[in-house]
Amino acid sequence: MEIIIKEGFDFAFKPDACERCTGKCCSGEPGRIWLNQQEILQISTLLQIHPIDYIQKYLNRFENSFSIKERFAEDGFECVFFDVSQKRCSIYTVRPFQCRTYPFWEHFRQNSEQAMRECPGVIMEGVEEHADGVSSGKELLKNPP
């Protein structure tokens, strides 16, 4: 069982939990998933549409930044790229950095209980016991779940 630990966080993450999850990180309370220019180009390429068309159809602009649009869902909101029938991200291979690093967000550094409620892969008990043979947060970025 792979466990990911990132310095400064008092919890660990089990990537295999994503296989059984219903997409909690993609739905629920409204939020913003920020994208940079490279991510916009990668996603528009995957979708085989021009970047301008992609921006107009799938992104909201906030001053000089772009965030992925959300749609209404049963329990709040969900990312427009969340495949409801599969309970998976439809752009998973090129998902934004912010999605790749979940649940190791700065907000959760001080709110680990919330991270545990929101993500079935977050574990808090026995984190120290798993310290040997775990992946670092850097590995998460190289080999995302």
Estimated helix fraction: 25-40%
What pattern of helices and strands is seen along the backbone? EEEEHHEEEEEEHHHEEH
The number of strands is: 12
Strand order of the largest sheet: 11-2-1-12
Task: Extract low-pLDDT stretches.
Answer: 138-145
What about the largest sheet?
4 strands, mixed
Structural class: alpha+beta
What integer is the average pLDDT?
87
- Beta-strand residue fraction: 15-25%
The end-to-end distance, rounded to whole angstroms, is: 12 Å
Q: Taking Cα atoms only, what radius of gyration do you get, to the nearest Å?
A: 16 Å
Q: What would you call the shape?
A: globular
Overall number of structural domains: 1
Characterization of this structure:
It contains 6 helices and 12 strands. Helix 1 packs across helix 2 (51-58). The chain has one domain. A 4-stranded mixed sheet has the order 11-2-1-12. The longest helix is centred in the first third of the chain and has 11 residues, at 37-47. By secondary structure, it is an alpha+beta fold.
